[in-house]
Write a structure and sequence with these properties.
The complex is a heterodimer of chains A (about 450) and B (about 450). Chain A has about 450 residues and is of the alpha+beta class. Helix content of chain A is about 40%, strand content about 20%. In chain A, a hairpin with a 2-residue loop joins strand 5 and strand 6. In chain A, helix 1 packs antiparallel against helix 9, helix 5 crosses helix 6 and helix 10 runs antiparallel to helix 11. The relative contact order of chain A is 0.11. Chain B contains twelve helices and 15 strands. In chain B, the strands form three sheets. In chain B, strands 7, 9, 10, 12, 13 and 15 form a six-stranded antiparallel sheet that branches. In chain B, a hairpin with a 2-residue loop joins strand 5 and strand 6. In chain B, helix 3 packs across helix 4. The chains are: A alpha+beta (about 450), B alpha+beta (about 450).
């Protein structure tokens, strides 16, 4: 048996019925992965999550690689494929699909965060010749919000503060983003109310889209019964949505219309997505300010500086700096004035006689790695954040860097934690050295 | 005379005509400050800013203390008054107004950023018994966006990337914030392009609301001649606001009508705030306040989970350690700022105040009886010692915890600086050790 080419990909915000639906689909014959790889049932989901651990890990890694998290409102950058981690994420997803589903004719993935990283999935699906059937679960966001705030963390402490009204923004991101990223694919919308009140109809509508899928009567009973009964703990009316901006109610009503088969509503959903994205752009504070790439060196006892201003573009960009220094001179400086991650894929000295690779070193508090032809500089604000040595021969030299710069709270927090650890080690070694000196 | 009770407060987003209006008011006899206190004219504002540098500094300080900046969209925390710095900021602002405007019959100030700081200004106005009159300058945000993107920076100075779409969001924040600040107090809304075409009715309205003696003909002439249509260097004609949410057009239309309408205004504010609430950045995650200590041959520890409240909160830990034992712990697992106004060991014999120390990457200061811990994510973020009295103890800590991009960036820079100092010290010691140089004391 080979990998089925029409998997069911269940998306939608957490607490919207994604687990209930997936549980029913599993009972109808959809393979969501080996039992031991699915998160076990708990107080929040007594009937199970049907969520593959590898999918969760992969999705979270993808978010992290693009400075996002499960309640991010932003989308993957439009040029996400250009980012160095993109290739390994794509490879990882392909490997996951091959490992887990290559022998399943009818398979599926349920992982709510997939809603935020659909461009990655779509890209891989296209490459593997897979045409997914997306199933988007939609629930009144006030119910999702209340359900989220009552999550039982068991013996553990609550890691996330209740999202409050932000849960409604997050619901918009999950729901509208899913509409936008499934435009060219088969999409079913499952409204939580309808799923609970009439699961058989909802499940039949999904099954009917897959020729040859004929669950047995026992499977049908099993699936339908898995949904009925006491799954709903929160109830809110549509009218209550009017306390939020009008897009919230419109989005919910549009989802219901799509679920009811309206083709026109899918186009309306895209309009709502555009409105959401516009608001997002209006209200998202720019992370990166203008940068200054500057290097300094000593020449004949004098400190010389060369610097250039640039605006980080969120993509690959090239800066050039003229360094009028003697050959074999150490030059050092800053690529950016805040903690940052700089991917550098070209670093060369240009001069009249040709081009020479420019080796990069980093400062004490920064780290530098080199992988697959690209430097990764995790830089902090220090005077010698990035260091070079001019090549042999006669200058002046032009240093050319082709780089992609990322900044953000996660990068800064990571830098701060790394530095604190380094500092602790340094303080200890200073104490030991001082002790040795005192004791002779 | 302390302060004349009706200052004219000129608000609105930068590049909306606040300088032009303030210049005209100054010529009409409103004292906006001493020339030498203003930012000097430059390529961005050849006619001058009429903006007091010291007041701008105070505003920046207010914003920075609350993790905000000049293009922040979030309002001050509702609990802003309970933050340790609030009293100092209010006093500083009050002191500034009294010092600069004492004895002036007609006075005012222009400060775009005050549009973001209404609660602080209102508190000061109330303390001083002032009933300000507001002037809110409003310009098509497309023009502001273009003007902001065209900003000419001083050579070598700090540069900002153009705000792009965020300029429109900031415009909503400034404009709606300024209108909210004015509330139902005397208000003149100045529509930039109309003002440049014909400033007289706007200025007349302000003067009339001021209710003082009329400016002279000479003053009118000077005020009107300083406002010219050619001051408008960005023109929105041909560019549409249609790509932005309808609130942008509705806000502009409301301001262009120049008529206060409480229902219409509050609907706009509600819509904007509704979006801000929905698209709020993630709140601080839950964590555990924990301490560890050496107890006999083992390491003992205790921890208590808490959710940062964005306000003062109290956490209690049961510490079963020997007297005078050093406790090392962590408040938060990210760089943070913790204000601690109470930290005591409660024991059988009573209560003992705990002295607090910070780790090498953190920084501890005291501010008006409150500790301020700039905490790094390190094992010894905070250290205490149990009292001499016998335990067990209940450690009670009342604190306010903040974190955010500015705190995190500052933390990284601070630790990088200390790391370099430490490395230099290590290098010196290594040289002494290897070279037999003089021993440290």
């Amino acid at each position: 048996m080979s990998m089925g080419s029409h998997p069911i990909i269940v998306v939608g915000m957490q607490r919207s019925g994604t687990s209930a639906l997936s549980g029913a689909l599993q009972r109808l014959g959809v393979y969501f992965g080996k039992e031991e790889m699915l998160y076990p049932a708990d107080a929040n989901n007594p009937k199970g999550f049907f969520e593959h651990r590898r999918a969760t890990v992969l999705n979270l890694r993808c978010l992290e690689a693009f400075q996002m998290h499960p309640t991010s409102f932003s989308r993957l950058p439009s040029n996400w494929r250009e980012y160095p981690p993109a290739e390994s994420l794509r490879d990882e997803l392909k490997q996951f699909l091959r490992d887990e589903f290559s022998r399943s004719s009818r398979w599926g993935i349920k992982q709510p965060v997939t809603s935020l990283v659909l461009p990655l999935y779509n890209d891989v699906f296209a490459e593997m010749g897979i045409s997914p059937h997306f199933v988007l679960c939609v629930r009144n966001p006030l119910e999702a919000m209340k359900s989220e705030s009552k999550l039982d963390f068991g013996d553990s402490y609550r890691v996330m503060a209740p999202l409050g009204k932000m849960a409604v923004g997050s619901w918009l991101r999950y729901t509208l983003g899913s509409f936008a990223d499934t435009v060219n694919h088969s999409l079913s919308v499952v409204v939580y109310d309808q799923l609970l009140s009439n699961p058989e109809n909802i499940l039949q509508a999904i099954v009917q889209q897959h020729p040859g899928w004929t669950p047995s009567p026992a499977d049908w009973d099993n699936a339908v019964n898995s949904i009925q009964g006491g799954m709903r703990h929160q109830q809110s009316s549509i009218v209550e949505l009017d306390e939020f901006p009008s897009i919230v109610r419109k989005t919910y009503e549009t989802a219901v219309r799509i679920a009811d088969g309206s083709e026109e509503a899918r186009s309306d959903a895209l309009d709502l997505h555009r409105e959401f994205e516009t608001w997002n752009a209006l209200l998202t504070e720019p992370v990166a300010s203008a940068g200054k790439f500057g290097l300094a060196w000593f020449s004949e006892g004098k400190r010389c500086i060369s610097e250039i201003n640039y605006i980080p573009t969120n993509g690959w960009q090239t800066v050039r700096l003229v360094i009028d220094a003697p050959s074999k001179t150490a030059v050092s400086g800053l690529i950016y004035g805040l903690p940052c991650r700089a991917w550098i894929r070209r670093s060369v000295w240009r001069r009249a006689s040709g081009v020479t690779p420019a080796q990069i070193r980093c400062g004490l508090g920064s780290t530098l790695a080199y992988e697959k032809g690209v430097y990764r500089l995790e830089a902090v604000f220090e005077p010698d954040q990035i260091q070079f040595v001019t090549p042999g021969g006669t200058g002046p030299f032009e240093l050319e860097l082709d780089f992609l710069l990322e900044v953000g709270t996660a990068i800064s927090a990571g830098a701060s934690a790394r530095l604190a650890k380094q500092l602790e080690g340094c303080v200890q070694s200073v104490e030991q050295l001082a002790q040795r000196l005192r004791t002779g | 005379m302390e302060l004349s009770e009706r200052p004219i407060v000129v608000l609105g987003m930068q590049r909306s005509g606040t300088s032009a209006v303030s210049g005209a008011l100054s010529r009409l006899g409103i004292y906006m400050g001493a020339d030498e206190d203003f930012f000097p004219p430059d390529a961005n504002n050849a006619g001058g800013y009429f903006e007091q540098r010291a007041l701008t500094t105070i505003n920046h300080k207010c914003l920075a203390f609350y993790q905000m900046h000049a293009t922040s969209l979030r309002p001050l925390p509702t609990s802003w008054k309970s933050y340790p710095q609030a009293k100092m900021l209010v006093e500083e602002l009050r002191g500034f107004l009294v010092e600069k405007f004492r004895g002036r019959l007609l006075w005012g100030f222009k400060q775009p950023m005050a549009s973001l700081l209404e609660p602080i200004y209102s508190a000061v106005f109330t303390e001083l018994g002032l009933s300000p009159q507001y002037v809110v300058c409003v310009r098509n945000p497309i023009e502001i966006q273009a003007s902001e993107a065209d900003w000419k920076y001083q050579p070598g100075g700090r540069q900002m990337a153009p705000l792009g779409a965020h300029a429109i969001g900031a415009w909503l924040r400034y404009t709606l914030g300024a209108l909210e600040a004015a509330g139902e107090r005397p208000l003149t809304i100045i529509h930039y392009s109309s003002f440049l075409e014909n400033p007289r009715p706007f200025l007349f309205d302000i003067v009339e609301k001021q209710g003082s003696s009329a400016p002279s003909e000479q003053q009118w002439s000077e005020a009107l001649s300083c406002v010219r249509p050619d001051m408008r260097r960005q023109n929105s004609s041909g560019k549409s606001l249609g790509e932005y949410p309808s609130i942008v057009r509705e806000t502009l239309a409301y301001c262009a009508s120049s008529k206060f309408d409480a229902t219409r205004q509050s609907a706009l504010v509600k819509e904007f705030n509704g979006w801000l609430d929905m698209l709020e950045p993630p709140r601080l995650s839950g964590t555990r306040l924990g301490f560890a200590w050496k107890g006999g041959n083992a390491i003992q520890s205790v921890q208590e989970p808490f959710l940062p409240a964005g306000d003062w909160q109290t956490v209690r830990l049961e510490i079963n350690a020997e007297p005078l034992t050093e406790l090392n712990g962590l408040f938060y697992n990210k760089p943070c700022r913790v204000w601690i106004k109470r930290c005591v060991f409660i024991h059988e014999g009573g209560e003992t105040a705990a002295s607090i120390y910070s780790g090498p990457g953190s920084h501890l200061t005291s501010f008006e009886g409150t500790y301020r811990l700039e905490g790094a994510y390190e094992a010894r973020q905070i250290s205490l010692a149990t009292p001499a009295a016998k335990g067990p103890y209940t450690l009670e800590i009342e604190f306010l915890l903040e974190s955010g991009s500015q705190i995190i960036n500052d933390s990284a820079s601070r630790i990088a600086g200390r790391l370099h100092e430490c490395a230099a010290r290590r290098h010196t010691l290594e040289r002494r050790l290897n070279g037999g140089l003089e021993r440290p004391r």
